[in-house]
Amino acid sequence: MERTAKKWIFAAIAGLLAAGCAADTKPSNPKLEKALNTYFESHNVCLFPDALKFPYEVSPGSDAKAEKRRMDALVEAGVLKEQMEAAIKVERYTLTPLGERVKGRFCYGHRVVTSVDGFTPPVKKDGFLETTVNYHATLMDVPVWVKTDDMKAAFPDMAAAISGPQPGQMTLANAGAGWQVPQ
Fold it and tell me: What is the DSSP string of 54-94?
């Protein structure tokens, strides 16, 4: 009888240890918020999806009007300087010292999730559990050069992003090690 009791105690301890180490795949607002914020910490929001090469040139023409407006807003913000190349009728933009620090994609902060508004029931896809999360996020660490009226007019998506919490949606996956944004 004593031997049976020891087996039961050992089995109970092993079960508790296994349960403590088991993957927690059930989504919850705090877990999903943490996963999103972990991802956003290292993924800045930028004006351009790909880095611009400098010197950057804008040729005259109807298609260039919006592009020139954006480049001129960056000049007014202090990250670019403009040089007119009259001989070849092109406007050339180069980086200022401030522009050197933010060059390329001109990133202007990162999202911080302020609320998880809901998520879909997890479904198995390609060996992972996936859920789609609806959230609101605000931008943090927004530099001063972004907040000018010229920048807001030239980059309306950026203006909306820095105006306050914005809705978003993202798919998260869990392979047993916690929820995360699939890479």
Answer: SSEEE-SSTTHHHHHHHHHHHHHTTSEEEEEETTTTEEEEE
Q: If you ran DSSP here, which 8-state letter would residue 22 be given?
A: S
Domain range list for the chain: 23-45+108-183, 48-106
The predicted pLDDT at position 2 comes to 53
Q: Is 4 exposed, middle or buried (0-12, 13-18, 19+ CB in 10 A)?
A: exposed
φ and ψ at 50, to 5 degrees? -120, 150
Give the separation between CA 17 and CA 83, rounded to whole angstroms: 68
Q: What are phi and psi of 31, to 5 degrees?
A: -65, -45
pLDDT digits (tens, 9 = 90+) for 86-131: 677 788 999 999 999 887 899 999 999 999 999 999 999 888 899 9
Runs of H (alpha helix) within the chain: 2-21, 29-41, 64-76, 97-102, 149-154, 156-162
